[in-house]
Amino acid sequence: xQAKLSDLNPRLLSGKSLDEQMDNAMLLAEELxxxxxxxxxxxxxxxxEGKLITPAVLKLRNTPADWHARWCTEGxxxxxxVQQVALNCVSPFVWSYKPGTDTLLEPVIxxxxxxxxxxxxxxxxxxxxxxxxxxxxxxFASLTGxxxxxxxxxxxxxxxxxxxxLISHALQEAAYPLLGKEAHTPPIHLTKRxxxxxxxxxxxxxxxxxxxxxxRSLATISLHLTSAMHKLGAKNRVQAVVRAxxxxxxxx
Length: 252
Known about the structure:
Elements: H1 5-13, H2 18-31, E1 36-42, E2 57-61, H3 67-72, H4 81-87, E3 93-96, H5 114-122, E4 127-134, E5 140-147, H6 152-159, H7 161-175, H8 179-182, H9 192-202, H10 207-214, H11 218-232, H12 237-246
Antiparallel strand pairs: 1-2, 1-5, 3-4, 4-5
GO biological process, one term: regulation of DNA-templated transcription
Keywords: DNA-binding, Transcription, Transcription regulation
Organism: Pseudomonas lini
């Protein structure tokens, strides 16, 4: 393919929606021999306990019909070893679920990953390439290309690593302005007033000072702060501010 980023950008930017951009990316990936694509995006990939959060955006092409439900509803995303490796990598990597293959998955896979492994084996999608993309302010995205076929597909995938990486970054550049509209609601939802109170608390104001600032009673402000604490699972206001900041709930 001998792709160049300057050549790929116009093909992907021509898509007016993320779905159109994914369609264009799939056409490019097929030229490299890939059979399916998985794109995910999270403004915050981990919760405050360090566990994977279901992505805010998950786009699929040519995957089994139940893939989205499995990964987003049944918890497969949290036990997908490819996602776990991707989050801790900065470079594209080839992976395989076949035993004895020299890829980054081999030392990672354990019995807890069995549902994902069995699913992909049944779908005959046991090999692929993943490109992790670490974004500003802690966001994370990845594009994974999957291949079907015999053992030779691993060698084929390795040869396409550079070109597939270019496709991934071109897709991310094209998709970035659209992600805010595509993203699902954050894992924790605060009301406008709760966010406002926490923002002032982050500035060091007491509940009484926030009440004066917002021209509300102390009881009302305390109620908003307590509600936010409960939603965030926080023990006190300081912890609530820290967790709200972690989830980027206080962003303007």
